[in-house]
Amino acid sequence: MPERWRQPFASSEAVRRRMSAQRRQGTAPEMALRRALHALGLRYRAHAAPVPNLRRKADLVFGPSRVAVFVDGCFWHGCPEHGRRRHSVNGWYWPDKIARNRQRDMDTDRALAEAGWLVVRIWEHEVAAGQPALASLAERLLAAVEERRPARPPRSSRRAAG
């Protein structure tokens, strides 16, 4: 935990309440993506660690296919399209915090790739773009998961092995 003086302070009580209520999981973009994927017949684990020794959880994990999906918030992960360049309040804190988040994301991507996982990062604005964009995104994820799904042995050889 950083030093107490490095902790950001709320500019108002309303801001403090809003920031405290910010969800880590089950956000609106994540839930919309989950519904779209479920409608396509995809099943996944939500908020699970893809690799046991990596203390980070993906928003969606497709275990047999080894695909980990992260839905990144534009503010928190420094979206090049929607992330803020300058912060009028707590400007001493947010650029470093967001840079640490981005560094952690890159480290997570590297560790999962080394373990044989495909990492898919989706910006919240991609999900919030509307139903046609969401359907297209879900179809691309479906294709990636199916492409990486391990082949099952023919039914007759499974019976013989058992």
Tag the structure with descriptive keywords.
4-stranded mixed β-sheet; 43% helix; globular; 162 residues; Endonuclease, Chain A; alpha+beta
What order do the helices and strands come in, and which of them pair?
Elements: H1 13-20, H2 28-39, E1 45-48, E2 58-62, E3 67-72, H3 94-114, E4 118-123, H4 124-127, H5 131-148, H6 155-161
Parallel strand pairs: 3-4
Antiparallel strand pairs: 1-2, 2-3
Description:
With about 160 residues, this protein is of the alpha+beta class. It has a single domain (about 25-150), classed as VSR Endonuclease (Endonuclease, Chain A). The protein has helices spanning about 15-20, 30-40, 95-115, 125, 130-150, 155-160; strands spanning about 45-50, 60, 65-70, 120-125. Strands 1-2-3-4 form a four-stranded mixed β-sheet, sandwiched between helices. The N and C termini lie far apart (about 50 Å).
What's the arrangement of strands in the largest beta sheet? 1-2-3-4
CA radius of gyration? 19 Å
Helix/strand order, N-terminal first: HHEEEHEHHH
Terminus-to-terminus distance: 52 Å
Characterize the biggest β-sheet: 4 strands, mixed
- Give the helix tally: 6
Predict the CATH topology. Answer: Endonuclease, Chain A
| Alpha-beta content class | alpha+beta
* Top CATH class: Alpha Beta
- Number of E strands: 4
Number of domains: 1
Mean pLDDT across the residues is 85
Runs with pLDDT <50, length 5+?
A: none
What's the CATH H-level superfamily name? VSR Endonuclease
Helix content: 40-55%
Provide a compact summary of the structure.
The chain is 43% helix and 13% strand. By secondary structure, it is of the alpha+beta class.
